[in-house]
Write a structure and sequence with these properties.
- With 325 residues, this protein is of the alpha+beta class.
- The protein folds into 3 domains: 69 residues, RNA-binding S4 domain (Structural Genomics Hypothetical 15.5 Kd Protein In mrcA-pckA Intergenic Region, Chain A, Roll), CATH 3.10.290.10; 96 residues, Pseudouridine synthase (2-Layer Sandwich), CATH 3.30.2350.10; 124 residues, Pseudouridine synthase (2-Layer Sandwich).
- Helix content is 20%, strand content 29%.
- It contains 7 helices and 17 strands.
- Strands 6, 7, 9, 10, 11, 12, 13, 14, 15, 16 and 17 form an 11-stranded mixed beta sheet that branches.
- Strand 9 and strand 10 form a beta hairpin.
- The longest helix is centred in the middle third of the chain and has 12 residues.
- The chain is elongated and about 80 Å long.
- The N and C termini lie far apart (66 Å).
- 34% of the residues are buried.
Length: 325
């Protein structure tokens, strides 16, 4: 379909069936390794030319026989700086990687956390294996898990992988299972929570179940164990992936996550437990939530991939203590 020499791409001649098609759509079909937004960016930057030196924009209408040359500029360095931070990489190939993120690590740089993030670590780890997402040498963050949530996360290394993974997340076809330790005993013990989740009207740092204006959120849950009739281990399978979804859904039912300072209502410290366990539970330093399984179709090879992550040490210790006393 195309020739690639020194970052020069040449499209095949347009067919009769392409007549009247927008330029950006035509080029996206010729070069599926680039997203349509990336193609539009190249056209706007003057990196696309035609045989007859026409001035081109994205709305240019294709004529049979038209052929175009794309000059792909070198990907620019990402703004975040690479940092040599150890990572637990559970899978990696030329297109994607899956990382088991520790609790306490922010995924993406933001105000108050410009360094020490997963992106900083990935920029160092990947180095020359990144071909650029949208023309920038950066890992493609397709989904996120909260700073204080541990577990599995998939990352794209190039535009084609990023586009393929993003489509699966948009279609809600990615398998994601989490384990949470919560206050109380869910009633019923298993079920399906489907609500709208949006920004809380009372606290802009929080998300909340809302009546209107939010996004559809679906969590399937099952109570696996109950400890002292006061704390429970719950498995959650996500159909959607909204911000703080599990934390919001469970807390809205009266089962806030152990250690969740944002969504734990006052009075939870009165949970009825033996003294030592009560202190252990109420002093747990982060929300007890772990992204344990991740399954998806490889965006380039089409292979079905499935990954599992055991409990991190802190949650394992918490659960073992609850079982033993």
């Amino acid at each position: 379909m195309d020739n690639l020499k020194n970052n020069i791409l040449i499209s095949p001649p347009a067919a009769d069936s392409d007549r009247g098609m927008r330029l950006d759509r035509f080029l996206s079909g010729c070069f599926p390794e680039f997203s349509r937004s990336r193609i539009q960016q190249l056209v706007k930057s003057g990196c696309v030319s035609a045989d007859d030196d026409l001035a081109l924009d994205n709305s240019f209408r294709i004529r049979p026989g038209d052929s175009f040359t794309l000059e792909i500029p070198p990907a620019v360095e990402a703004v975040p700086r690479p940092e040599n931070i150890p990572l637990n990489i559970v899978y990696e190939d030329a297109d994607i990687l899956v990382v088991d993120k520790p609790a306490g690590m922010t995924v993406h740089p933001a105000a108050g956390a410009w360094d020490g993030t997963l992106v900083n670590a990935l920029l160092y780890h990947c180095r020359d294996s990144l071909s650029g997402i949208g023309g920038v040498l950066r890992p493609g963050i397709v989904h996120r898990i909260d700073k204080d949530t541990s577990g599995l996360l998939v990352v794209a290394k190039n535009d084609a992988a990023h586009r393929g993974l993003s489509a699966q997340f948009a279609e809600h076809s990615v398998e994601r299972t989490y384990f949470a330790v919560v206050y109380g005993v869910p009633a019923p013990l298993s079920g399906r929570m489907e609500t709208l989740i949006g920004r809380s009207p009372f606290n802009r740092k929080k998300m909340a179940v809302v009546e209107r204006g939010g996004k559809r959120a679906v969590t399937n849950y099952q109570t696996l164990e109950v400890f002292h009739n006061a704390v429970s281990l719950v498995q959650c399978r996500l159909e959607t992936g909204r911000t703080h979804q599990i934390r919001v859904h469970l807390s809205s039912r009266g089962n806030a996550l152990v250690g969740d300072q944002l969504y734990t209502k006052s009075g939870k410290s009165s949970v009825v437990l033996p003294s030592a366990l009560k202190t252990l539970v109420n002093d747990f330093p982060r929300q007890a939530l772990h992204a344990a399984t991740l399954g998806f179709i490889h965006p380039l090879s089409g292979a079905l991939l499935h990954f599992e992550s055991g409990f991190p040490q802190d949650m394992q210790a918490l659960i073992s203590a609850l079982k033993s006393k």
